[in-house]
Specification:
Blueprint (H helix, E strand, L loop, with lengths): L12 H17 L3 H24 L5 H31 L5 H35 L2 H14 L3 H16 L4 H38 L6 H27 L3 H26 L1 H24 L5 H5 L3 H17 L2
Helix pairs in contact: 1-2, 1-3, 1-4, 2-3, 4-9, 5-8, 6-7, 6-8, 7-8, 7-12, 8-9, 8-10, 9-10
């Protein structure tokens, strides 16, 4: 890093990403969900393409990765602003609808604040470990986090599908029914999936990363337990934003950030990696329970959210069996 001349530009990627996110959420507030989902794909796909290209050209260095990050984040911001301008121009060029603009901006600020808090939540642990523990511990923890985050793929996909479907419903009751249907089916699948995934880690981690990272197994299993709750929060969050309550997710993310910062600082010094992993799992569980409580304040009962009847369970299991047979 000392000889990396491009590393001094890394801080510039933060405002580029944040302003790009804000433009994206204004579009989401205007119900342009297909455009929003497309914009959200720019950064991850850009990174993948950039890394593959640099590897192919045998120029995969830290300096080139920083330049690639700057290019991708700049492109993301420019494309988001361009699409935002085109859509606003088409909607408001002949008539300035101040109320619609105000609602879009209020919605986007609430979602943006929650996303920033979520981003902080995903980085606090690594900053603390890098500051208090060795680089070896950081490497072990990074592997554990990378493995545990694999479980969020399904939750992110379902939340992206839920949001426009629920937003398109006319009545509040229809929106609630759609959200509960999605969440209950996901919750049954998620419990089974996370359990199987956690039990497979003693085989998966040594096979993929080598025996040198065997210490990551217990850390990853603790994080997978937390992922069960944070992924459920992501799915419910898609429904809540589709219902028009983005502020709820902002509150949940901010409170979760405070809880994580307090407990991870204490437990890291006492128990090391196991301590910070436990703090993260507790933070994820707390976020999920706080979200359930705030949803209940919108006159959605705890029973309708958390109770799964025998018929609902059997239908979901039947669907899972059919899906499994389809891929055989």
């Amino acid at each position: 890093f000392r000889n990396c001349t491009s590393c001094k530009f890394i801080p510039f990627t933060i405002p580029l990403g944040l302003f790009g996110m804000y433009a994206t959420y204004i579009l989401q507030g205007a119900s342009h969900f297909s455009v929003t989902n497309l914009l959200k794909c720019i950064v991850p796909f850009g990174y993948c393409i950039g890394i593959v290209w640099l590897r192919f050209k045998q120029n995969l260095t830290i300096e080139n990765l920083v330049y690639a990050q700057l290019l991708i984040q700049s492109s993301y911001l420019l494309i988001a602003v361009f699409l935002l301008y085109r859509i606003l121009l088409n909607q408001f060029v002949f008539k300035i609808e101040c109320n619609s603009i105000r609602q879009m901006l209020k919605y986007s600020v609430k979602v943006w604040f929650g996303d920033i808090s979520q981003l902080a939540n995903s980085r606090i642990d690594q900053f603390l470990i890098g500051g208090f523990l060795s680089s070896r511990d950081l490497g072990i923890y990074t592997v554990a986090v990378s493995v545990a985050r694999f479980t969020s793929v399904f939750a992110d996909a379902i939340a992206a599908i839920m949001l426009p479907l629920i937003a398109g419903k006319n009545s509040f009751q229809d929106k609630v029914a759609e959200m509960l249907n999605f969440f209950k089916n996901y919750w049954i699948f998620s419990v089974i999936f996370h359990l199987i995934f956690a039990l497979s880690l003693p085989i998966v981690i040594p096979f993929v990363f080598g025996n040198a990272y065997s210490e990551s197994i217990i850390i990853s299993q603790i994080l997978v337990a937390g992922s069960l709750f944070v992924n459920a929060k992501i799915v419910l969050g898609g429904g809540i934003m589709g219902m028009g309550f983005p502020a709820i997710m902002s509150y949940v993310e901010f409170i979760g950030m405070i809880i994580l910062l307090m407990f991870s600082t204490i437990l890291l010094k006492i128990f090391g990696l196991v301590g910070v992993s436990t703090a993260i799992t507790f933070s994820y569980f707390s976020q999920f329970m706080i979200l359930i409580f705030l949803i209940n304040q919108k006159e959605i009962s705890y029973k309708s959210l958390l109770y799964i009847s025998k018929t609902e369970f059997q239908e979901t299991v039947k669907w899972l069996k059919n899906a499994t047979n389809y891929f055989k």
